[in-house]
Write a structure and sequence with these properties.
This protein is mostly helical. It contains 17 helices and 2 strands. β1 and β2 form a beta hairpin.
Length: 517
């Protein structure tokens, strides 16, 4: 039988808030936290590089290609990869599955940086071929670069999959399997803080690599290629560190019954596997779950539409790929800092204010920030790209406004949106919690991620030719505001039901306690 000293030792009030980890638990907590840091460090590097490649470096490309790539590349690839993942999970042990998947990703990223990217001129369509195809098929103007620059598109897909496969399917399943409930309540929130350190480190590295590559590259040398190799080298180093740490966890930590005893770990109910039809049926027959689904869908659609226009503005302000990548690094660095700050505030907001107040902060902020951001873009369309406001380029104002909006939106999302959404499941019955979360994850998650991409790609196909996203901002802004307003109304409606169910559950608990006494 394992010993769990967490129940016999109390923390001081300050340590309970800042560091509720026992000294003997550091052998288990620190390597798990370091694994999280490595995963998010790599994810931030490849995520920022994928945008730089597709938006800034691809021939004929731009932010307008992102919707097509997400809808026709990422979504089907994610489904295919998860099918393969499940089959491998049935054949391999947990440890071998982790090594195989992580090594596969690392091999691709390193191969891309040191072999595929230098040979891109021989592998991709020529600029002339892409231009001719775009002229012949104006409705597919922004889809053709996705095919013409296929290795960049492949890198984009792999970067997206790293987050969903390695972080969600590998790390969190591993953490849930080896962590006791008493440990999870203290460990998991701190993993979030450690993960933000990964964003700070990667954001700083991106800025440094982009600056060094641009300054040190001699005539005739592809400075962005130098930058890419630096960053892929860092991916390899942190990837090896991740694998070594995971190996050490299995050999030195999980063999100690103080930290892991399969018979002592509380068995968690696995989420039921639900298809799209079953998920839709459950959501539409349960108004409470449907309202939660609206929150998830609304966030996915609104943030994707805003990000598409924002990344297009970055390209206008920073046409050089190194400068674009450097700005993305600043965005990641800012997001990490803001998220850590908002997480501290968020914990107090959830403790002091009602659920409705905490849940409304994210959509209200996004609505107000989008009003300013889209207002600047509309002014830019009317006055021209060379227009200035108080001596500052209107394009640069749009970039700065978009950067602040994106950084704050993600920070608020990680600290408040995710927390309030999970809290909304608490008053539900055990069956509704399990099946409801699965249904929202299957249907709402996909609609949220693919919805924004579908809207963007459809509008660009209707507009035809090389119409940029910022020229469609009137329609995009209207859609974002409508979606966010639906989000706000859903929060208000859901909060009424949440409070009612919570009160009923508390009364039931008191009645049960009184009858027992």
């Amino acid at each position: 039988m394992s010993t769990d000293n967490t129940s016999t030792t109390e923390f001081s009030k300050l340590r309970t808030v800042l560091w509720p980890i026992h000294n003997f638990e550091l052998k288990k907590f620190l390597p798990m936290g370091f694994m999280m840091l490595c995963i998010l460090f790599i994810y931030t590097l490849v995520r920022d590089l994928k945008d730089t490649l597709v938006v800034s470096h691809a021939i004929g490309g731009g932010a307008e290609t992102l919707g097509f790539l997400k809808l026709y590349g990422v979504v089907p690839s994610a489904i295919l990869f998860m099918i393969v993942f499940v089959k491998l999970a049935n054949k391999l042990t947990r440890e071998k599955l982790f090594y195989s998947i992580v090594t596969f990703f690392l091999a691709f990223f390193v191969t891309f940086g040191f072999i595929i990217f230098p040979a891109r001129e021989y592998l991709h369509m020529s600029a002339e071929t892409i231009a001719n195809l775009q002229s012949s098929y104006p409705a597919l103007h922004w889809f053709i670069p996705v095919i013409g620059n296929w290795s960049y598109s492949l890198f984009y897909i792999f970067a997206e999959l790293w987050g969903s496969v390695v972080l969600t399917a590998l790390f969190w399943q591993f953490a849930n399997e080896i962590t006791r409930v008493s440990e999870a309540k203290r460990f998991y929130s701190l993993f979030g803080f450690i993960g933000q350190l990964g964003l700070l480190a990667s954001g700083t590295l991106i800025i440094t690599c982009a600056s060094i590559a641009k300054k040190s590259a001699s005539a005739g040398v592809d400075s962005f290629g130098v930058n890419l190799r630096y960053q892929m080298g860092a991916v390899l180093i942190f990837g090896i560190a991740l694998l070594v740490t995971y190996r050490w966890m299995n050999k030195s930590v999980l063999t100690d019954k103080r930290f892991y005893d399969p018979g002592d770990i509380a068995k968690k109910k696995s989420k039921p596997k639900m298809g799209l039809g079953e998920s839709a049926k459950m959501l539409f027959t349960n108004k409470y779950l449907l309202l939660i689904a609206v929150l998830v869908i609304a966030y996915g659609i609104s943030i994707n539409l805003v990000e598409g226009v924002f990344k297009g503005q970055i390209k206008l302000a920073y046409p050089d790929a190194n400068d674009y990548n450097k700005l993305m690094g600043k965005l990641s660095l800012t997001t990490g800092l803001l998220t850590m700050g908002v997480m501290l505030c968020g914990a107090n907001i959830l403790r002091i204010f009602p659920w409705r107040t905490a849940a409304l902060i994210t959509p209200v902020f996004l609505f107000c920030a989008s009003l300013i951001f889209f207002g600047v873009i509309i002014y830019e369309n009317k006055m021209g790209l060379n227009a200035t406001i108080m001596g500052t380029s209107v394009v640069m104002i749009a970039v700065v406004t978009g950067l602040i909006q994106n950084a704050f939106s993600k920070g608020v999302k990680y600290s408040l949106f995710d927390s309030t959404m999970q809290m909304a499941y608490i008053p539900l019955s055990p069956e509704e919690k399990v099946k409801g979360q699965a249904a929202v994850s299957v249907l709402a998650g996909r609609l949220g991620k693919g919805g924004g991409a579908a809207i963007q790609s459809t509008m660009l196909m209707i507009a035809g030719g090389n119409t940029p996203l910022y020229k469609l901002v009137d329609w995009l802004a209207a859609i974002v505001f409508f979606v966010v307003l639906m989000w706000i109304f859903s929060v208000i409606n859901l909060s009424t039901r949440f409070e009612k169910l919570t009160k009923a559950k508390e009364e039931e608990a008191r009645a049960t306690e009184n009858s027992n006494s």
